[in-house]
Amino acid sequence: MLAACSGPTSTTAPVDNRQAGAPIVSEPLPETALASLRGELRCTFEADGRSLLIAAADVDPTARATAAINVDGAIRSLEAASPGGFDALGHGGRFAGGDWRVAVVLGAEQTTGHEGSRNAATLSITQGEREGRVDGVWNCGP
Fold first, then answer.
1. By CB distance 3.0 to 4.6 Å, which of 23, 86, 90, 113 could disulfide with 41?
2. pTM value?
3. Are 45 and 51 in contact (CB under 8 A)?
4. Given the DSSP bridges, would you call strands 117-127 and 74-80 parallel, antiparallel or unpaired?
5. How far apart are CA 2 and CA 48, in angstroms?
6. What is the secondary structure of 37-90 as a DSSP string?
């Protein structure tokens, strides 16, 4: 918090995280965010045990995945930059919605106990001059 003094009185001004150049901090997604997604199969970006991005798609290779993030206290709906359906999500992805741009870049593959995939990953979010980045895990499948 910032405080400014003027004579004997003082005021406290909150920091506005939406100002140009301020870092973007992604917050955990509530269950209600799932309602905006299209597709039966899902991938989730997780960091510190929190789901920060959820993407969904069908197996149809002509379909674009949809995704959701929670930034600045609002759920942002996104769409994949290119078609590819669920198979494309297994390789990470690039998403956009309004002036928001989001990328999931995969790292090393990790072992899973199911038929899905799990990779180390980096989530990057940009909006104008603002950006945020977090390392975590990209889980796809059951």
1. 86
2. 0.82
3. yes
4. unpaired
5. 29
6. --SSEEEEEEETTEEEEEEEE-S-TTPPPEEEEEETTEEEEEEESS--HHHHHT
